[in-house]
Amino acid sequence: MEFEESGIGEECGVFGCVAAGEWPTQLEVAQILTLGLVALQHRGQESAGIVTSNGSTPPTYTTLKGMGLVSTAFKPEDLLKLKYGNLGIGHTRYSTTGISELQNCQPFVVDTLHGKIAVAHNGELVNAAALRKKVMRHGVGLSTSSDSELITQLLALTPPMEEVDTPDWVARIKNLMTETPTSYSLLVMHKDVIYAVRDPYGNRPLSIGRLVCIWDKEGDTEGWVVSSESCSFQSIGARYHREVQPGEIVQISKHGIKSLSVVPRPEGDPPAFCIFEYVYFARPDSIFEGQMVYTVRQRCGRQLAIEAPTDADVVSTVPESATPAALGYAQESGLPYVEVLCKNRYVGRTFIQPNTRLRQLGVAKKFGALTDNFAGKRVVLIDDSIVRGNTISPIIKLLKEAGATEVHIRVASPPIRFPCYMGINIPTKEELIANKPEFEDIAGYIGATSVRYLSVEGLVAAVQGGIESCGEKEQISSRTKMSKRIGHCTACLTGKYPVELEW
Amino acid sequence: MEFEESGIGEECGVFGCVAAGEWPTQLEVAQILTLGLVALQHRGQESAGIVTSNGSTPPTYTTLKGMGLVSTAFKPEDLLKLKYGNLGIGHTRYSTTGISELQNCQPFVVDTLHGKIAVAHNGELVNAAALRKKVMRHGVGLSTSSDSELITQLLALTPPMEEVDTPDWVARIKNLMTETPTSYSLLVMHKDVIYAVRDPYGNRPLSIGRLVCIWDKEGDTEGWVVSSESCSFQSIGARYHREVQPGEIVQISKHGIKSLSVVPRPEGDPPAFCIFEYVYFARPDSIFEGQMVYTVRQRCGRQLAIEAPTDADVVSTVPESATPAALGYAQESGLPYVEVLCKNRYVGRTFIQPNTRLRQLGVAKKFGALTDNFAGKRVVLIDDSIVRGNTISPIIKLLKEAGATEVHIRVASPPIRFPCYMGINIPTKEELIANKPEFEDIAGYIGATSVRYLSVEGLVAAVQGGIESCGEKEQISSRTKMSKRIGHCTACLTGKYPVELEW
Amino acid sequence: MEFEESGIGEECGVFGCVAAGEWPTQLEVAQILTLGLVALQHRGQESAGIVTSNGSTPPTYTTLKGMGLVSTAFKPEDLLKLKYGNLGIGHTRYSTTGISELQNCQPFVVDTLHGKIAVAHNGELVNAAALRKKVMRHGVGLSTSSDSELITQLLALTPPMEEVDTPDWVARIKNLMTETPTSYSLLVMHKDVIYAVRDPYGNRPLSIGRLVCIWDKEGDTEGWVVSSESCSFQSIGARYHREVQPGEIVQISKHGIKSLSVVPRPEGDPPAFCIFEYVYFARPDSIFEGQMVYTVRQRCGRQLAIEAPTDADVVSTVPESATPAALGYAQESGLPYVEVLCKNRYVGRTFIQPNTRLRQLGVAKKFGALTDNFAGKRVVLIDDSIVRGNTISPIIKLLKEAGATEVHIRVASPPIRFPCYMGINIPTKEELIANKPEFEDIAGYIGATSVRYLSVEGLVAAVQGGIESCGEKEQISSRTKMSKRIGHCTACLTGKYPVELEW
Amino acid sequence: MEFEESGIGEECGVFGCVAAGEWPTQLEVAQILTLGLVALQHRGQESAGIVTSNGSTPPTYTTLKGMGLVSTAFKPEDLLKLKYGNLGIGHTRYSTTGISELQNCQPFVVDTLHGKIAVAHNGELVNAAALRKKVMRHGVGLSTSSDSELITQLLALTPPMEEVDTPDWVARIKNLMTETPTSYSLLVMHKDVIYAVRDPYGNRPLSIGRLVCIWDKEGDTEGWVVSSESCSFQSIGARYHREVQPGEIVQISKHGIKSLSVVPRPEGDPPAFCIFEYVYFARPDSIFEGQMVYTVRQRCGRQLAIEAPTDADVVSTVPESATPAALGYAQESGLPYVEVLCKNRYVGRTFIQPNTRLRQLGVAKKFGALTDNFAGKRVVLIDDSIVRGNTISPIIKLLKEAGATEVHIRVASPPIRFPCYMGINIPTKEELIANKPEFEDIAGYIGATSVRYLSVEGLVAAVQGGIESCGEKEQISSRTKMSKRIGHCTACLTGKYPVELEW
C-alpha cells in the first residue's frame, strides 16, 4: 500500500555531508546534499531544506528551503546559492500534524552566544511537554510546536559547568541526551563540524558513508556523509561505512570521523530500534544492523507462509512494497509467483466529488488487473500491512470481478493497535481496523476469502534471527548473540513502550 | 527503461464517453473522461484536454485544456465547468517536436458550416506534407504544424457531392480516409454523436467499452466509452466490448454503438498494427487483438530464453516494464527470478551541472542495488529495449560494483534501426545504438558480459502465435487463422513500411 | 473612474517595429516590442503576445504569448527567445467576452500557400457574422469566435485574380477591406514587411513613429514603429511621425515606410474615429488628429464649465483620469482647483464576502478623503464619465461624511445610451444608468447635490474645434476646415452608427 | 519619486482590531484586518501577515502569512481561515536587508510560560546588538536577525519581580521599554487584549480609531482599531480617535481602550517623531499630531516658494507624491499649476538587458510628456526629495526634448546626508547624492537649469508651525505651545540623533 493511503507516515529523513579536500567541490557538496535528500524522499514529502556552511570563523551559513518534493522545492538557480559550503546538512519532512508550513521546514538555524548552529532532526521527544515547560520557564519563547525547535533551544540554553569562553557543543549535546531518552537521530552543524547523534535507544536509524574517489586515486576517501538510510549512499558514489550506535555522538569533519561518546541507556534496558523501519518505512536497499531490509521482508514472507499456509493456485503482491514478502511466501510455500496487479504510475490527485457513484470504483484508477494471470484461480495476495482496511477492499473486488475464484489476504506484519509517540504518524486508535468491531470478521469486512496476519513473534524472529526452514542455522546462532545487543520497539503492535511515558 | 530516457515516445491517447441515460450524470461524464485520460497518461504527459457537448441543437461545447499531467492540467474547480455535457472526448499528448505549447493541446474544436466539431487524434499522417499543401491551396490558413489541425480542416473543407443542407459527417470522414491511408485513431464529436475511426491499416489501437450499471439494474448498459487502450475501462467501471476494426467507422451515441462503414485497404495489403504497442508503449493490462499485452511480453521473454539461453545463476528485470519478459525468461530457462534493482519512486528532475563528476554516477539516483540477492552471482538482466544504449550502462556498472560476477543483457525486442513516420517519436537514425559502429561490440560498449536481442521473427511469433513450448497448441491453430486477418508494422525494426512513403 | 469598475473596455492595442540597420539589434527589437506593449497596457490587460520574424526566405517566426500584464506574461528568459528577429508585431488584449484563454491571445500566425503571416488586430468587424458564414461555406473551420482569426483566414483564402505564383498581400488586404468596412486597425507581418492598415472609416487609431539614433549620428533614422497610440513612442526613443490615414495601407520595412493605397469610403460618408478614444481610452499624452488627448480633455472641462456652471467653493477631480477636465473646469469657472481624494496605489483585489456590512463601505478602500481641503465647502467634482452609476455614489458619501456641504457632479462626457459594435465593450443597454428609470433623478440616486453632463454638441465641439472662450480663434478656423476631413463616431451617445448594421 | 527607485523605504506598517460586540463579526474582523493592511501597503510591500485570536482561555490563534502585496499574499480561501477571531493584529513588511523570506514575515507568535503572544513591530532598536548579546547570554537561540524576534524573546524572558502565577504583560512591556529607548511602535496581542505601545521618543506613528456602527444605532462604538496611520480608518468605517502618545501603553479590548502607563523620556529630551513620515512615507490623508500630512506637504511647497522663488512660466509636479507641494508652491508663487508628466499605471518590471542602449531611455517608460502644457515654456518642477539623483535626470531630459526651455528643480525637503538607525532604509552614505562631489554642481549633474532644496529650518517650520504668509496666525500661537510638547527627528538631514548611539 502507499504511504498516503495507509495513513502511516515517517516523520523525516536527515542527511549530512562533509568534503575532506578539493573534491567534492562546493558545488558538488550542494548536489550531494540534494541527491541524498532525493534518496530519502520516501521518508518525507512535505518540505525539504538544506543548510551549508563555509566552515570559516565565523562561519557563513546558506539556507535553502521549500515546500514539496526536493525536485519541486529546490530550483536549479536556488542550488547555486548553496555552492559556498564545504559541509552541510539537509532534511526532508513528513507532515504529522496537517499544518504544512514553511516555518516548520528544517534544518533550523539559531544564533547563540557561541555562534550559529544548524539542526536537523528525525524523531519525536517522548517527554516533549515537560521539556517545553522547562525551557519556557527559563524565559524562552517557542515559535513552533516542533520538537526540533525545542532541541535547538535546549542546545542553546544549557551551558555546562566547564564551558567558559569557548563553546563545548559535545557537553551540550550530552546534556540534552540526559534530558530526553528518545527518540531522535540528530545532525548538529557548527562551523566546520557535524555532530551525528542517535538517542540511547537507537529508535531512529542513522548511518555513515564514505565518499570515495572515482578518479585519480580510486578508492581514496574524499569526504563523509551521514544519512537516515544507507540507500542514499549509492546515488552519490559513497560506500556504506557503519551505523551510528545507539547513544553515540560522532563528530564528522574534514579530518574524518571520530566517536566522541556513547551515552548509555538505563541499566537493563535493551535498545529499541523501530521495527516498522524494516516492515514498512525504509527503502528495501537500505541496511540496518547488518542486514538488507529487502531480505528481512522476504524472511517475513517465508515466516508468514509457515504460520499461515494457504490452499491456493498462485501467490502475488500488492505492488510494490509487498513484493519481497510475496516472493518469500512463494519460495517457502512452493506456490508459483505471478503478478496480478499493474500499477498506473501516473495516478495523481484526481478530483472525484464525494457523493458520486464513481467513488465506489476507488482504487481501480490506481491498479489494473492482469486478468490472464489469475482468472479462474485461487489467489494468495500478500500485503505488507493493513492499517485502516479501506484500500485493500477495492483491490479484492477488482480481482474477483476479473475472475479470481478466491482471494486470500496474507499480511506480512502483525495488526497495528497502539499509537506511536516516537516519530511515527499512526491513525488514531479508533481508526485502526484492528481496534474496530469489524476486525472480528475482517475477511468478511474487506471481502476476502480469508485473512491472516504475521504474529509478533514471527516478525521479531524474521527481523532478529532468520528462520530455520531457510537453512540459515549458522547465522541464527550468531544472531542470537546479537539479539542481546539488539532489540526492537514493537510498541505499536504490543503497547509495550521502551520508556515509561509521562503525561 | 523509462520512456523519458530511451527517447521513444508515443504521440497520444484518445478517450471518449457517451452517457446513455440518467447515469452517468453530467458531472460523472466529466469525471469518467478525466479518469480515462489518467489511465492513458503513459501515452502522453505533455498536455491534456477535454471537450464535452450537451448534445442539444445547436450544441454547447465546453473545453478544458492544460499543460502537464492530467492531475496538474485540470484543477478541481475547472472540472466543474465540464459538467454540462452528456458526452465528450479527451486527449493526452506526448510532445514529439519539443515545442510544447497549449495551442497544440487537443481536442481541437472548429466551427464549420454545419456547426462545431471536436477532434482528438492519435497517429501521424504519412502524406501530411501533400495534404497541407492541398488544404492551403484551397485558401485555408493553418495555425499549427499539427496533423490533427490538418484533419479538422480536411473534415471542414471536403463537402461530398451528396451533402446538401444537412451535414454528412460520415461521408466527410470516409472522404478523409481515402485521402490518407494511415496512421490515425480518431474521435470526431458532433453534437450528440462520437465517431470512432481507425485507419485502414489499423496502425494505432482503439477499443470500445460498455459502462455497466453498478446499482439498481446491475449489469445494464448505461453508456459507452472508447479509448486508445482498454486499460482505462477498469478504472471507470466499464467492460471491454471490442476493438474498432482497421478502416472502421463506429458511431457512438446514447442509442448505442453502430458500425457505419469499413474502408478497405488496397488489395493484398495486410493490416499493420504497430508491434511496439505490444513491446513497449501499451500498459500491460490492455488488450489488443484478443490478447493481454502482459502475456505477449511474457511470451517474448520465453522466446528470448529459447533464442538466447544463458549460463547464469539468476534472472532479473530492469523494473518495471521488463518484468513480464523477465518472468517469462525465468519460466522458460528454469533459472530463479530475483529482484536486483529497487526503484526510487521520487526521482524527479534534479539539477546536476553537466561538468561535474557526479554526472558519472548517472542512473544510480534512480535505482538502488538489492545486493544480497545477487552478490557473487551471474545475473541475466532482461530489458525491454535498448534504444540509445546510454541508460543500461550505468545499471550494469551498479550491479558489478555491488558484486555481480557477470551481467548478461537480454533484450526482449529486436534492435530499432529505422525511423517511424506513423506516430512514434524515435531518435534520429544516427542516435540509435543499432546504427552506430559501437553496436559491433555492444557488450563491450555498455560494459556487459554478453548482449543478445530477440529476433524479429521471434517477436512476430510471440505476438502473433504464441510459442509451442508454452503448451498453447490449441490456441496456435486459431491464431494462425487470425494471422491472415492480422499483421503488424515492424518498420522501425525492418525498414519495411506498410505504405509507400512520399516525400 | 477606473476601467475595471465602469465596465467600459477597449479591445486591444497593437504595436510593430522594424529595424532599419544594425540598430536596434535583434535583442533590442524584442525589448522595443515589449516596451511598446507596456505603454499600450491601458488598452488591454488580459493577455499579451509578440511574434518576431528574422526576415529571411523562408522566414522564421518566434512567438511569445502569455496571460495577464506584459510584465507577468513575459518572463526575462522568455524574451531571449525573441531575440532572433529584425522585425515583429505585438498585441495586448482586453477580454470582451469573459472567456479568457490563451488561444485567443494575438498575434495569430497562420501558414498559407505563400508562407506564414502574423496578424494583430484592434477593432471589431461590423459584418462578422456574414463573413464567418462565407468563410465556412468555403470549407474553412474556425477555431475561435475571434474576428482576428476571421481576418487571417480571409487573408489566406482570398486569392486575387492577378496573383499567380508570388503572393500579392496588398491585393489580398485590399480585398479584405472591400469585404468589411470597419472597424480595424491591423498589422500584417509577412517575412520582412509589416503592413499597417486602418479601416476606411478610421474607427480605431494607428500611428507611425521613427526610431531615432541616440548615438553616433544623432537623429538618423534607425527603424520604424507603428502603434495604436503615439504614447508608446517616447518610452522607446521614437519620434511621432504621422497617423495611418483612414483606409490607408502602409508598408513598413527596413527600407522605410511607403503608402501603398488608400481604400475609399462610400461617397459622402465622413470618417468615424471613435470619440471615446479622446474621452476615455487613450493615454493623455497620445496624439490623434494632430492634437494631444490631454488638451482635448481639458477643453471638455472648459466646455462643461460653460454649459454647466456651479455655485460652489472648489473644483476637484476623481483621480486620475478626470484631472485634465477638472483643471479645465477650474480655469474656465475661476473656482480654485484642489485635491479632495487621495488614491491608494496598492488596492488590488481584496476579497470581501458579499453579504457583509463592509460591502457598504465599498470604494473607500480605494480613495482617502483629504479632509482639510474641502471640509465645510461646496465641492464641484468632475468625473470623465458615469456609466453604471455605482462607483461615484460611495465617493460622494465619503466626501459628505468628511465634511463637504454640497457635492455637485459634473461629467465631462455625455451619457452613454447605446451599444458599440466596433470594438468597445459597453455594458448592456439595461445596465447603463442613462437608460434606467433612476436616471430621471440621477442626483438623488447617487446622492449628489446636483448632476450635469456635457452635451454631445459640446463634446464634438471640444474634440473638433476648440472653444472660443479659450482664445483659440485662429486654431478654430483651421480646425473647421479639417472637420470636413475629420468626423467622429458618437454611436454610443447618439445611436447613429457610421455604417448600416446587418443582422 | 517612487519608493523603489529612490531607495528610501519604511520598515513596516502595523494594524490591530478588536470587536466589541456582535459586530464586526469574526469574518468581518478578518476583513477589517486585511483592508487595514491594504491601506498601509505603502509602508511595506514585501510580505504581509495577520494573527487573530478567539480570545478564549487558552486562546486559539490563527496565522496567515504570505509574500508580496496583501492582495497576492492572502487568497480568498485563506481569509476564511482567519474567521474564528474576535481580535487580531497584522503587519506589512518592507525588506530592509534584501533577504526576503517568509520566516521574517510578522506578526511573530511565540509560546511562553504564560501562553502565546503575538507581536507586530514597526521600527528598529538602536541598541539591538547589545540586547541580542544579552538575550543569547541567557541561553536563548535567535532564529533571525530581526529586531522583532528580539522583542518577542525579551518579552518572554524578562519576568518582573512582582509576577508570580499570572503573567503581568504590562510590567514586561515596561521592562522592555526601559531596556530600549527607541524606535518602536508595537502591538502585543495576548488572549483577548492588544497592547498598543509607542516608544518614549514617539519615533514611529501609531493611531487609534473607533469602529462605528453604520446600522441600527448609528454612531455607537462597535470596536477599536489601531494603526500605523489613520488613513486606514476610512476604508473600514472607523473614525479617528487619537494618537498613542510617546511612551504610552494603551490596552485595547472589547471593553474599550485604557491608557495603562506612560514611560517617560530622560529629563530634557524632546520627542523625536520621524520628520520623514511627513515628507515622504505617510499617505497624504493620514493625520499626525493633529494635522493632515497633505496640508504639511502643501506648506512645505509654500515655504519652498518663499525660500527659492523662480522666474518661470509654470509650476508642475513629479506625480504623484510631490503634487501637494507643487500646488503649494504654485499658490505661494502665483505661477500657474499645470501637469507636465503623465504616468503609465501599468509599468511593472520589464527586463531590459543592462548593456543595451535602451537603458538610456530609462524612466521614460514610466512617464509620458504632456507636451502641449509646457512646450516653449520655463518649468518649475517640484520633487519631494532627491536621494540618489538618478531618477530625476531622465525626467528632465524628457521634458527638455519635449520642448521645455528651462527646467528648474525645487525639492520640497532638505538633502539627506546621514544614515537612519531607527527604521528607515536609506542608501549608504556614499550613495547619497548630497555626499558626492557631484553635489557641488547638482544642477549640471542632473541636467537641470537650477536646483534648490528646502532648508531644514523651513521644513521644521512647515511641519511644526505653519507659515506666516499662509495667514494661519491664530493657529501658529497654539502650535508654538504645542511645539514644546512636540519635536522631530531630523537625524538623516542633520546627523543629530535623538539618543546616543552605542556601537
From TrEMBL, chains A, B, C, D:
Catalytic residues as annotated in Swiss-Prot or TrEMBL: C12 (nucleophile)
GO function terms (MF aspect): 4 iron, 4 sulfur cluster binding; amidophosphoribosyltransferase activity; metal ion binding
Residues given in the record as Mg(2+) binding sites: S321, D383, D384
Positions bound to [4Fe-4S] cluster: C274, C420, C489, C492
Record note on cofactor: Binds 1 [4Fe-4S] cluster per subunit.
Pfam families: GATase_6 (PF13522), Pribosyltran (PF00156)
Keywords for the protein's UniProt record, in alphabetical order: 4Fe-4S, Glutamine amidotransferase, Glycosyltransferase, Iron, Iron-sulfur, Magnesium, Metal-binding, Purine biosynthesis, Transferase
Domain called Glutamine amidotransferase type-2: residue spans: 12-255
Catalytic activity, as annotated: 5-phospho-beta-D-ribosylamine + L-glutamate + diphosphate = 5-phospho-alpha-D-ribose 1-diphosphate + L-glutamine + H2O
Cofactor(s) required for function per UniProt: [4Fe-4S] cluster; Mg(2+)
Pathway membership: Purine metabolism; IMP biosynthesis via de novo pathway; N(1)-(5-phospho-D-ribosyl)glycinamide from 5-phospho-alpha-D-ribose 1-diphosphate: step 1/2
GO terms of biological process kind: purine nucleobase biosynthetic process; purine nucleotide biosynthetic process
Signal peptide range: none
EC numbers: 2.4.2.14
HAMAP family in the record: PurF
Annotated family: In the C-terminal section; belongs to the purine/pyrimidine phosphoribosyltransferase family.
Functional summary from the UniProt entry: Catalyzes the formation of phosphoribosylamine from phosphoribosylpyrophosphate (PRPP) and glutamine.
Protein name (database record): Amidophosphoribosyltransferase
UniProt source species: Pygocentrus nattereri
